[in-house]
Amino acid sequence: MRNRFCKSPLWECSEELIQVAQGERPAELVIRHANLVSVTTHEILPDTDIAVSCGRVAYLGLGEHTAEHCIGPDTKVVDARGLYATPGLMDSHIHVESAMIGVAEYARAVVPHGTTGIFCDPHEVGNVTGLPGVRAMFEDARRVPLKAMMTPPSCVPAVHGVEDTGASITAEDIADTMAWDNVVALGEMMNFPGVLAREGNALGEIRETLAADRVVTGHFPSPDRDRALNAYVAAGVSSCHESGSFDEVLAKLRLGMYVQLRQGSAWLNLPGYLPQLVASGVDTRLCLLCSDDNHPHTLVDEGHMDRILRTAVELGLDPVTALQMATINCAQYFGLAHDMGSVTPGKCADIVLYDDLESFRARMTFIDGELVAEDGRALFDVAPYEWPDFMTHTMNLGFEPTPETFRVPAPGRSDGTARVRAMGIEPGDTITRNIVVEVPVRDGALLADREHDVLKVAVFDRHHGSAGTHAFGFVTGFGIHGALAQTVSHDAHNLLVMGDNDEDMALAAKTLAECGGGEVAVADGQVLALVELPVCGLMSTERVEVVAEKVAAARRAWEQMGCSMPSPFMTMGVMSLACVPELRLTNRGYVNCLTFEMEDLLP
């Protein structure tokens, strides 16, 4: 596949690289005396010189050989003595919108941590505004050096017939995107039930991707490791980031899938299977690292792929193996290893200099041979992006929320109790349980029961105005008093409201309707925290540090309201994700994500 993400195509500059390697012309950059992490041989090569020209590596001085013959009067020389040189880090699966910022601002946050490439699936924006919004996201991306490789969203909506989104994407649309110069794969095929049922659009998207010689990235959280998994892989889906146990990881590897080992802000999966993977001795060539979803405070306070590397090493993974998962393995999977993924002659000079292979503190980040970050600071900047109007006016409820809006009738009951279906939340995981709980009934309405940690949930279609629908449910596991609302509610991103009383729920919903979307925490008639996200109800127009502080204030509000789980807004945001087991609530009602049938609130 032709790589359009490097400064110079190899066929245009190969002659110059030959000259530099042989000392016939000087290099533009020479990094000297580095401990080179060779991801091609799983070695650390001490005292290595790296000569760069045209944005690519021209020569490696290994052993007794040096790059002195590549140095001219105008060559920039960097002394990397004592530092470790690695290929630039790649995130094999990321939804940038989860950080509540655009791609350019995302780059400013992650490049100083050694990230040089991301494989991003913009299906959050896709579900709100369709492909026009996806195009706008990547116009923003062109303004920064970070290599933003796109995997166009395959599931808009995520699962047909169970929710209402702001847009739809068809197989014909995917065929068009395969001609875009920033597309390298199909975004995660979450509609695995559609694949297994041979649904026309799902199979059509896969066919169009394979016909364009691209890979199809996947999403298979089903416990089935036999016929369904075999069929899913046989359809052409070749990777998956939805593994919750070592057995799942191993089953997918044995069928030839690339497994994206995930450690995001809320989905903390590495501790659940990485130690067993290390102990098993299984070959990890098909293992990649990914974050999937990062909140802004994670990026600002902890880092990006460097954070995942630290965690992996702490869990027992050899650091060079960990680096392979974030570099060459990733490039090989996406068909880009001829240009990226290793520090070897002819490859793009995406290079990071680290203090060590434990803290992974990046001292310098180079992309195409240009120094773009140093000592934790990006050396590039961009003005705020001018988002098109259709992306900044996406709140269309068609009514003004009041406490009466949140009244849930209890047919045939006036007072007492009633058994209702509820979503049981597991902190730190995307999986929910399908449970039945008892709630109070008063004046013919179902109420929340804070004493037993049962909250009321409502989902409103925010895309279609007065024609939209809404549904009610219940949830356990959050333990809050008050109400929380957000328009970050995967994947339709409708208005999601949760609370223990109707008055606070109404105020939370009204607050977001007025500001264009975002996240809000309310208790006893007071707004405790608000994160305004006016771009599609998903992204801010402010700096990542500002957004991170607002999210931190929201987190403090959650704690004040009684919640102790990690990244609770992100956990709340997947309560509508109708493709992950077991039970979800969309604007159309409860969805059983094992049978993919609608279920009643009253069992």
UniProtKB/TrEMBL annotation:
Residues covered by the Adenine deaminase C-terminal domain: 430-596
Pfam families cross-referenced by the UniProt entry: Adenine_deam_C, Amidohydro_1
EC numbers, comma separated: 3.5.4.2
One BP term from GO: adenine catabolic process
Residue ranges annotated for the Amidohydrolase-related domain, each copy included: 84-372
InterPro entries associated with the record: Adenine_deam, Adenine_deam_C, Amidohydro-rel, Metal-dep_hydrolase_composite, Metal_Hydrolase
Cofactor(s) the protein needs: Mn(2+)
UniProt cross-references to Gene3D superfamilies, sorted A to Z: Metal-dependent hydrolases (3.20.20.140), Urease, subunit C, domain 1 (2.30.40.10)
One MF term in the entry's GO annotations: adenine deaminase activity
The protein's enzyme class: hydrolase
Catalyses which reaction(s): adenine + H2O + H(+) = hypoxanthine + NH4(+)
Keywords: Hydrolase, Manganese
Protein family membership: Belongs to the metallo-dependent hydrolases superfamily. Adenine deaminase family.
Matching PANTHER family: ADENINE DEAMINASE, N-ACETYLGLUCOSAMINE-6-PHOSPHATE DEACETYLASE
Name used for this protein in its record: Adenine deaminase
Organism encoding this protein: Candidatus Olsenella pullistercoris
Gene: ade
